[in-house]
Amino acid sequence: MTASAFPLQQCEDCGARLGELDPASACPTCGGLLELVHAPRHDAAELIALFAERRGAAVGIDVSGVWRYRELVLPSVDGDAIVSHPEGNTPLLTRRAVSAWAGVEGLLIKHEGHNPTGSFKDRGMTVAVTQARRTSASAVACASTGNTSASLAAYAAHAELPALVFVPAGNVALGKIAQTIAYGARTLIVRGNFDDCLALAREASTSLGIQLLNSVNPFRLEGQKTIVLELLEQLGWNAPDWIVLPAGNLGNTSAFGKALREARAIGLISRMPRLAAIQASGAAPFARGFATGFHDKVRVEPHTIATAIRIGAPASWNRAVRAIRDTNGIVADVSDGEILEAKAVIDAAGVGCEPASAASVAGVAKLRRDGVIAASDRVVAVLTGHLLKDPGAVVAYHQETEPPPARANRPIEIEPRLSEVERVLRRQ
Ligand code: F0G
Questions:
Q1: pLDDT tens digits, 390-416
Q2: Which atom of ligand 1 is nearest to 246's Cα?
Q3: Is 129 within 8 Å of 155 (Cβ atoms)?
């Protein structure tokens, strides 16, 4: 292969190679998932200098927290072809109350809810929609628990491409369905769960010639790698001890593993952080697989309040296994009760997130209690989505649950009189 043939797509199962512009959604030989293989032309010092130089950009693609890292994402792309909001540039926060609750002193929170549509999906979607346009797609599609569909709808609208989304009936949070409809995607509400939606989206995209932009699409993962690249850059390229993230369909876990492998191989970091992928107990096939050394691909009927990760048959299983193995990582699960408590703490610290995102901080607290994470470890927990994605979860927890949970903040209805205000304040 000549250097100009890179990046190329390679089947993770049989090793078959496809050109970068081949629009296949899976390996034509064996049906395996495809990944992008890069041949970086810069060394670590050159990349670090390039990335730093672009950080202050006020205009153009360098403003994007995805495309700023394009040498490691999609180096061959022409700037004019890029469909960018822009996205990325999310903060790395510390909040005393969250650190104290989790039991980890300097807990860092990478808040991906600060992306344009309110979730980390925008980082993958800018790359996937850019690639869809480069390969002359006539339409794009996805199955989703809500965030991918919101993001796809927004980026497809920007690219002026028709979008088709499949979402599970009754299990998509209000903010996400509102975004998907408002941004103009053709929205199909499927009487089934996410796994049914993905099977249908795969079938429909093959037979109708529509490009599938779920995280089985390798270009999605290239964009999502920049969550890790950006947080490493924010830490001065000093790897933390742990990176903790919620896990559902396992695209993000796979992207994090690939980012770390590549960053380590190039020399951007000198040691590997450990990944901790956290699932909801009622939708934890990957955690169950981990407990048995990934002997079998586990499948479950999923149930959890964290609808974003209500997934029983994760599509990126094999590559997520690789991510956990390569980083000496672990997989754990947390109950809905632990997720809701973590969310209440994160929300009350003024940070806020949706339920699935809080699984990462709940996971940190659990791994701390179990002695896996030390109080002095440098830990980054990723919050994947914004609080306003799921207003129903907030109302249910604070206003509707009986008896009120310990952290419930009940609003009080009063008559418009000062005496009423005084009466309420006296009671506290
Ligand atoms: N957190 C949030 C807020 C999500 O929306 C998702 C996935 C995850 C975590 C898990 O990431 O699937 O890569 O392991 N949401 C997908 C969707 C399934 O359709 O929006 P994953």
A1: 999 999 999 999 999 999 999 999 999
A2: 9
A3: yes
Tell me the C-alpha distance between 255 and 276, whole Å: 13
Token pair for 96: 């005393």
Q: How far is the CA of 120 from the centre of ligand 1 (A)?
A: 8
Beta bridge partners of 246: 278
What is the rounded distance in angstroms from the CA atom of residue 76 to the CA atom of residue 71?
8
Q: Round to the nearest angstrom and report the end-to-end CA distance of the chain.
A: 72
Using the mean position of ligand 1's atoms as its centre, give its distance from the Cα of residue 220 in Å. 12
d(CA 392, CA 400): 10
H, E, C per residue of 288-301: HHHHCCCCCCCCCC
Please write the tens of the pLDDT for every residue from 179-218. Answer: 999 999 999 999 999 999 999 999 999 999 999 999 999 9
**Measuring from each residue's beta carbon to the nearest atom of ligand 1, which residues come in under 6 Å?**
119, 121, 144-148, 215, 246-253, 308-309, 354, 356-357, 384-385
Which atom of ligand 1 is closest in space to residue 247's alpha carbon?
14
Residue nearest to atom 15 of ligand 1 (CA): 308
Residue 114 identity: H
pTM: 0.98
d(CA 253, CA 259): 10
Whose tokens are 């096939």? That residue is 285
Mutate to test the pocket of ligand 1, among 216, 227, 384, 389 (most ligand atoms within 8 A of CB): 384
